[in-house]
Design brief:
The complex is a heterodimer. By secondary structure, chain A is an alpha+beta fold. Chain A has one domain. Helices cover 41% and strands 35% of the residues of chain A. Chain A contains two helices and four strands. In chain A, the strands form two sheets. Chain A has a two-stranded antiparallel ribbon with strand order 1-4. Chain A is rod-shaped and about 90 Å long. The relative contact order of chain A is 0.31. Chain B is an alpha+beta fold. Chain B has an eleven-stranded antiparallel β-sheet, with helices on one face. In chain B, strand 2 and strand 3 form a beta hairpin. Classes of the chains: A alpha+beta, B alpha+beta. Chains A and B meet through strand 2 and strand 3 of A and strand 11 of B.
Chain lengths: 99, 206
């Protein structure tokens, strides 16, 4: 007869780690899809235009959000935080006896 | 007959004097093109933006560009960058304090080193630049382009007569000179601000 112990992750731990992974993938995906802008986030995007008569090049702003590097860092930081919190939940151990 | 000839000569002289008189160009542009672009080097990426609230007038005589005078005013709360938080900081009390200092102005006293070729005049604009309550004498290289009869065409009303005056220039100021966050954050935001000017004024004729 022998005893063996197996460890199963707790549902909370598993859930938090899954949420962290989804958050990280989502944030990186959104940042990439919006142009992978390596500067600060923009609430409005400058668009250069030309006044034909005078030859003046001027800027107008298009209202749209472009996530920047602090958006990426914030999302990655939050995902890392969730992962660290998940480690606080202990694994469930089950003991099995076999003859 | 003699009186008639004298009257005709007076009329010609009067028309000549009128056409040579300086014109007043209004820089509140109906098409909203006028803006001053600013550029500061900074950590991560340069901070670039525009100030579009331009008003003011310039008196310009195509026959005597050296006599040009005028004043250009920029509404401080029209300064805009791509990031809303940065725009708020820029207009806030540590930077330009827009509620207390609603205007940035340049008063043109004279043009030096005037050189005219065709419609273009290059010169050094000498005047007083006022930012955040501090006024300093500055000399700015400018290019003026006089576009005779182009006013109506630009606003899609060719029947309206009038001329345009385009003013271009580029110069650098030190933000500490004007009390803009002096000595602060210089490791993050360069103390020098590059300003690029490209504005047009109109002088409609009735």
């Amino acid at each position: 007869m022998s005893n063996s112990t197996t460890h199963k992750p707790s549902p909370a731990r598993l859930g938090l780690q899954l949420a962290a992974a989804v958050l990280l993938i989502g944030v990186v995906g959104f940042w990439t899809a919006k142009g992978a802008h390596t500067g600060w986030s923009m609430n409005q995007v400058p668009v250069k235009q030309l006044d034909e008569i005078t030859g003046i090049e001027f800027v107008t702003y298009e209202k749209r959000f472009v996530p920047g590097i602090e958006f990426l860092a914030g999302g990655a930081g939050l995902a890392a935080g969730l992962f660290v919190v998940s480690l606080l939940f202990k694994r469930q151990s089950t003991q099995t006896t076999s003859s | 007959m003699k009186n008639h000839v004298i009257a005709t000569l007076f009329s010609i002289a009067a028309i000549g004097a009128l056409s040579a008189a300086p014109q007043t160009f209004d820089f509140k542009d109906p098409k909203g093109v006028n803006a001053i672009q600013f550029h500061l080097d900074s950590v991560l990426e340069p901070i670039s933006g525009t100030a579009s609230g331009i008003t003011g007038t310039v008196s310009f005589d195509p026959a005597n560009p050296a006599a040009t005078t005028g004043k250009i005013v920029v509404a401080t709360n029209s300064l805009t960058v791509s990031n809303a938080m940065m725009t708020d900081h820029l207009r806030g009390d540590r930077w330009l304090n827009a509620p207390v200092n609603p205007e940035i102005s340049f008063e043109l006293a004279k043009l030096d080193n005037v050189k005219t070729s065709g419609n273009d005049t290059t010169a050094t604009a000498v005047g007083k630049l006022s930012i955040k309550g501090v006024t300093k004498d500055v000399s700015v290289p400018v290019k003026l382009t006089y576009l005779a009869g182009a006013f109506g065409k630009r606003i899609n009303k060719p029947e309206v007569g009038g001329d345009l005056l385009v003013v271009r220039g580029e110069f650098t100021i030190n933000r500490s000179d004007y009390g803009i966050n002096p000595g602060q954050m210089e490791d993050k935001v360069n103390p020098e601000i590059k300003l690029t000017l490209a504005i047009v004024g109109g002088a409609p004729k009735a």
